[in-house]
């Protein structure tokens, strides 16, 4: 019985050996078919990971990668199409996290160089803003700003006043009615918004997305480096080009939209078309 078990084990080991040899042979053939530049990039990617494994084996900064290794893989992730299939020492999302860390360091350096921005107000004035907002909970930032001007203080920006206003307690369920409305109208409502994507050179690309709430299906999307009002209106026209319009469209209070976009959305939701609407 033991002899049969040993024979079966030997057969399985032989099959595993031939499968491994076949895998290596296929890798060799693929390397021959690749261009010289592609093969060189793959060799650099694999050797960099082998170097990190060797450093970890020697006990140097175990579990941490060098800055040069991180920078190399950030560059590979932006310029090499098959970089994620060559990640063996880390996960692809780890490389994406390194790019975000580099972006934060870049903007920290930029913000440290610039001395601009609003002038910081005194502690006395901040306490006064907080006191007025507590004693007058119905007053907004503009009202408090005008009151400070009447008291002899310099005219502040409304955003600065709102920053130091007292925050009232929120109710236990502040969005209960809103969530009920969303659930009831989910199949006939869309949402539109901008999201920002950073490139390797830390430039901003703006992605405009129109999505159905019910099915979570993307109705329309486009990308630009310089969004404008006319560009946004054209994207809404393309999203409703075939007459399939929602009953409600949800958006934020982005200053880019303006009254023209509101007028267009009223025509889409109430009249079901954008024809005959001058924006």
Keywords:
about 280 residues; alpha+beta; Nucleotidyltransferase, domain 5; extended
* Widest sheet: strand ordering: 3-2-1-4
The total domain count is 3
| Quantity of strands, as a count | 4
Q: CATH first level of the largest domain: which class?
A: Alpha Beta
Estimate the helix proportion, in percent. 40-55%
Overall, the morphology is: extended
Instruction: Output the CATH homologous superfamily of the largest domain.
Output: Ribonuclease H-like superfamily/Ribonuclease H
Largest sheet: 4 strands, mixed
Mean pLDDT: 78
Rounded to the nearest angstrom, the radius of gyration is 30 Å
Kindly describe this structure.
The chain is α+β, with helices and mostly antiparallel strands and 279 residues long. It folds into 3 domains: 34-113, no CATH class; 123-163, no CATH class; 176-271, 2-Layer Sandwich (Nucleotidyltransferase, domain 5). It is 54% helix and 10% strand. It has 10 helices and 4 strands; from the N terminus they run H-H-H-H-H-H-H-H-E-E-E-H-E-H. The chain has helices spanning 2-33, 36-57, 67-79, 92-113, 123-135, 141-150, 158-163, 176-184, 229-239, 258-271; strands at 189-198, 204-212, 218-224, 248-250. It has a 4-stranded mixed beta sheet, covered by helices on one side. Helix 2 runs antiparallel to helix 3 (67-79), helix 3 packs across helix 4 (92-113) and helix 9 runs parallel beside helix 10 (258-271). The longest helix is centred in the N-terminal third of the chain and has 32 residues, at 2-33. The radius of gyration is 30 Å and the shape is extended.
């Amino acid at each position: 019985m033991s002899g049969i078990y040993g024979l079966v084990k030997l057969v399985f080991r032989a099959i595993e050996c031939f499968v491994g040899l076949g895998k290596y042979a296929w890798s060799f053939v693929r390397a021959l078919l690749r261009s010289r530049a592609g093969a060189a990039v793959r060799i650099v990617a694999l050797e960099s990971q082998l170097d990190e494994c060797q450093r970890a084996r020697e006990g140097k900064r175990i579990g941490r990668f060098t800055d040069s290794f991180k920078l190399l893989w950030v560059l590979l992730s932006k310029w090499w199409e098959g970089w994620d299939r060559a990640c063996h020492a880390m996960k692809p999302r780890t490389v994406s996290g390194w790019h975000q860390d580099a972006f934060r360091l870049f903007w920290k350096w930029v913000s440290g160089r610039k001395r601009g921005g609003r002038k910081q107000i005194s502690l006395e004035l901040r306490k006064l803003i907080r006191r007025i907002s507590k004693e007058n909970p119905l007053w907004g930032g503009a009202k408090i700003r005008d009151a400070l001007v009447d008291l002899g203080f310099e005219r502040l920006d409304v955003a600065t006043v709102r920053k130091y206003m007292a925050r009232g307690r929120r109710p236990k369920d502040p969005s209960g009615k809103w969530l009920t409305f969303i659930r009831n109208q989910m199949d006939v409502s869309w949402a539109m918004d901008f999201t920002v994507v950073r490139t390797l050179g830390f430039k901003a690309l703006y992605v405009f997305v129109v999505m159905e709430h019910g099915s979570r299906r993307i109705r329309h999307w486009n990308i630009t480096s310089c969004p404008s009002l006319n560009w946004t209106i054209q994207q809404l026209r393309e999203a409703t080009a075939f007459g399939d319009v929602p009953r409600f469209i949800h958006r934020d209070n982005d200053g880019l939209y303006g009254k023209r976009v509101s007028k267009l959305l009223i025509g889409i939701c109430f009249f079901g078309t954008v024809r005959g609407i001058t924006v």
